[in-house]
Structures are given as C-alpha cells and as structure tokens.
Amino acid sequence: MQCRMCGHEFDEKKAGQGCQSCGKEDCASIHCPNCGYANSPEFEEEFKFIDSLKDKLGFNKNKK
Predict the structure, then answer these.
(1) Which of 19, 31, 32, 41 could lock 3 by a disulfide, CB 3.0 to 4.6 Å apart?
(2) Residue pair 37/5 in contact by the 8 Å Cβ criterion
(3) How many domains in the chain?
(4) What is the pLDDT of residue 20?
(5) Is residue 45 situated within a structural domain?
(6) Rounded CA gap, 40 and 45, in Å?
(7) SS3 of the chain
(8) What span, in angstroms and rounded, lies between the C-alpha atoms of 38 and 4?
(9) Domain that holds residue 49
(10) Does any domain span residue 26?
(11) Are 31 and 8 in contact (CB under 8 A)?
(12) What sign for the dihedral angle of Cα 6, 11, 14, 17?
C-alpha cells in the first residue's frame, strides 16, 4: 500500500488495521508507519479511478 499523505510504500498486513484513538469498533483504517496517516482501504478503488482520470487529463505529469 502507498500512503496517501506521504507516499511511503508499506505492507498493510504488517502495519495492522484499526486504531485505538478513533473510538470506532469496526475501524478499518490502516495507519502509515512513516507518518501515522489513517489510510482507508475502502477508498482505494475510488482513488485509482481519480488517478486514472488525472492521467488522462494530464494532471499527473510528475507521476512515475
């Protein structure tokens, strides 16, 4: 998984899911071990779609 905040690549299985601070019982957020940002796996498909649109429109010029 790649962190949406800092771009750090990490294994989401090793990072663990959920957090103790949000209070939600069914928290599915995966926290980045680099910056602590709570990435939501539910939104990954939406982010992929948005990235593909940005590619088509030429907004991801710096993306490798």
Answers:
(1) 32
(2) yes
(3) 1
(4) 60
(5) yes
(6) 10
(7) CECCCCCCECCHHHHCECCCCCCCCCCCCEECCCCCCEECHHHHHHHHHHHHHHHHHCCCCCCC
(8) 9
(9) 12-57
(10) yes
(11) no
(12) positive
Average pLDDT over residues 35-45: 83
Q: Identify the CA nearest to 63 among candidates 45, 47, 46, 51.
A: 51
In a domain, 1, yes or no: no
Residues 34, 48: Cα–Cα separation, whole Å:
22
Is the per-residue pLDDT at 64 higher than 60? no
Q: What is the mean pLDDT of residues 3-17?
A: 85
pLDDT one-digit tens code per residue, 46-61: 878 888 898 899 886 6
Supply the mean pLDDT for the chain: 80
Residue 34 predicted with pLDDT over 90: yes
Domain membership of residue 3 (yes or no) is no
* pTM, to two decimals: 0.59
